Amino acid sequence: MRRRGTVLIGLLAVVVLATAAWRFGPALMLTLALAAPASEAWLQPLLDETPAREEIAFATDAGILQADLYRPARPRGALLLVHGLSRAGRRQPDLARLAALLGRHRVLVVVPQFEGLAAFRLSGREVADVRAALRYTASLDRPAGVAGFSFGAGPALLAAADVPGLRVVGSFGGYADLTHVLAYVTTGAHSFEGRRHAQPQEEYNRWKLLALLVSFVEDDRDRRLLDEIGRRKLAYPGDDTRPIEQDLGSAGRAVLALVVNRRADAVAELLARLPSGARDALRRLSPLPAVPRIRARLLLAHGTADDSIPFTESQRLAAVAGARAHLALFTSFHHTGPQPFWPSVSERMGDGWRLLRLVDELLPR
């Protein structure tokens, strides 16, 4: 009798493991490849072939958008990826690798080139472009979804609020309110629901922030001067740009004062001094008010060590989305990927489980 019971328990364990492998197998393989890139080599035999990358183009309200299309042989769904502030744009290596991995899991992936984001700009045109790209993606295969990364997540969320019928919407290292991001990049301080946080900031991010704000300045001369300061500082942060700064008008000086500020108690006043057009743009491009209109499942992921956009921004997004949101905070991740060193085995395992659950919802079934 005891032996029969042992056999039954063993058979039950096999059934449970087989069921788990069938249910979570694809998500587990993608999770391993994302969290430990070295594992991709021995996962090769278990995955579909890497889809060929096709260059495509489609029309938007403002013109033609160039994009890469990763088309698997038997797609089960489609996903639009929106890159962040990166000179490489759609060919940013980590993003291209993710698109190829998703393709090997039977996801048809569209990755457009958003020239504004590639130039460290956020003008508002990106929202219309993402909206057009979403409609194109949905026309290729359903169910369709969108995932935005870093500063590309804001336009992705804003566009998703206007496109019905999406399966999933993802924000990875994204923001809720741009004014909070400005405060964080310049002072390292951020808070949510009464809990205040502070961490050292990467100085390079200040000049990415300046490049982002340049397009909000209406005065042509100030915009050209700020653009020159930003380009020189991004190339060499130690460059002396004081001769250029002396020629700035009031609008340009207000923007630069915010960028070089380091005091948390000065942020509100400096924001109030920005040109009215800049303040309006910051409000218009902040997705927090639009999130309640998103009917799809909302996947929010953020690294607690992110030095570009604070993780409390994803907490804000989750709070307004309510039960539709799945929030995952990763202690071993930085801005949009794993840190090179493990903080601890337990934290890494915890993040692995959180990533598995997130990936399981991202992949179409």
Notes on the protein architecture:
With 365 residues, this protein is α/β, with parallel strands linked by helices. The protein has two domains: 53-177 and 290-362, Rossmann fold (3-Layer(aba) Sandwich); 180-187 and 195-282, no CATH class. It is 48% helix and 16% strand. The protein contains 15 helices and ten strands. It has helices at residues 2-35, 40-43, 93-104, 115-118, 125-140, 153-160, 178-187, 204-214, 220-235, 242-245, 250-260, 267-273, 276-284, 312-321, 345-362, and strands spanning 53-60, 63-70, 77-82, 107-112, 144-149, 168-172, 189-192, 195-198, 297-303, 325-330. Helix 5 (125-140) crosses helix 6 (153-160), helix 8 (204-214) runs antiparallel to helix 9 and helix 11 (250-260) packs antiparallel against helix 12 (267-273). It is globular. The model is unreliable at 7-22 (pLDDT under 50).
Stretches where pLDDT falls below 50 for ≥5 residues?
7-22
How many alpha or pi helices?
15
Helix content: 40-55%
Q: How many beta-strand runs?
A: 10
Number of domains: 2
- As laid out across the biggest beta sheet, the strand order is 1-2-4-3-5-6-9-10
User: What's the Cα radius of gyration?
Assistant: 22 Å
The CATH top-level class label of the largest domain: Alpha Beta
